[in-house]
Amino acid sequence: MELKEKQRKILDVAVDLFKEKGYMGSSVRDLATKLNIKAASLYAHIRSKEEILEWICFGIAQEFFDELQEVKSTDIAPKDKLNLFLDKHLSVVLQNRDVTHIYSNEWRHLDERLPEFIELRKNYQEEVEQLISEIYHAQNWELKSPTFTTRFILHTLNNSYFWFKRNTESTSEITDEIREKLLYGLLGNQK
Amino acid sequence: MELKEKQRKILDVAVDLFKEKGYMGSSVRDLATKLNIKAASLYAHIRSKEEILEWICFGIAQEFFDELQEVKSTDIAPKDKLNLFLDKHLSVVLQNRDVTHIYSNEWRHLDERLPEFIELRKNYQEEVEQLISEIYHAQNWELKSPTFTTRFILHTLNNSYFWFKRNTESTSEITDEIREKLLYGLLGNQK
DNA sequence: CCTACCGATCGGTAGG
DNA sequence: CCTACCGATCGGTAGG
């Protein structure tokens, strides 16, 4: 999935558009207009509208995978590993807010490659769950429901951009606040 | 917004459909087929496709408002009030999972009543923020960013149904786990 | 509730 | 990259 320069441009504009109107609410004519070309001309660069969604969903999924492997292969204390995962994942999310949003909310409109995507996602969640389980076990923390906890973590991280007005906080401020809420909750560090 | 019996039936089937395919991915023909009637016959009961989305979004928004007023007018200790709000809000969410999902993710496809909806939502968030601020102040808890915290709470509650396989846990088990994670985070009650 | 039908728009192709 | 065009489908109306 190496994109040519023009395809990159189409991808970027499509991300803007899909974020604003949703995948099903965006027409190829909308997209073409934003690119100052005619709809038919798009098809010199794309196979289909769906292909663009594939670029978005599989591209960011790969980034999440790469980042997870990096965390897994780093040899540090378990608690540091948890923090490293949170920071790395958040960093990818915050650098790709719109893409993450589309990945989270529009993936079901994939067609041809939908089964492949679901499988990829399942594998990813299982790998994260394994990481979390290892960390909890090494720390002797109680982990009642690994699957629930993993989904809670991923969902919280993937939607964290929601809680901020864009660009009023720095990335490190955002990361700190989210890490704190996720680890200690509303009351964990008070009272 | 009192619905007739047939409209209630249309609403219920539409919720199923919109949840599965999204509002923009669902056609009035899909909906009519599920109801075993022809598409044109729908218009004896609805003004437009958008009206159904209005029923969904404004209906559940009203439930959230009512529940908040109830919490606000209950005279109990601040910390109990926080728990009461979490429980009541979660109860509405868990009894209306699909509707909450559509409310959270499809509201932007409202057209005529979009400004009204945005205003309603803003008011609701401000009222929740006010409640949270009062509780924190009464407890002498530190509240760095009320808006961030409010969004974190609402977003976590509104998406909590995501973390469960449907129907394998009881509502009270789910509520307990979510309240715990929200209040104390991953580590707040460990170590 | 139906049949019949509307204009608009959809994703996409042919051919240059 | 364009013009010209395709069949399919869209939300919705007229009239019964």
Automatic annotation (TrEMBL), chains A, B:
It comes from the Bacteria. Residues 27-46 bind DNA. Residues 4-64 form the HTH tetR-type domain. Signal peptide: none annotated. Gene3D superfamilies: Homeodomain-like, Tetracycline Repressor, domain 2. Keywords: DNA-binding. This is TetR family transcriptional regulator.
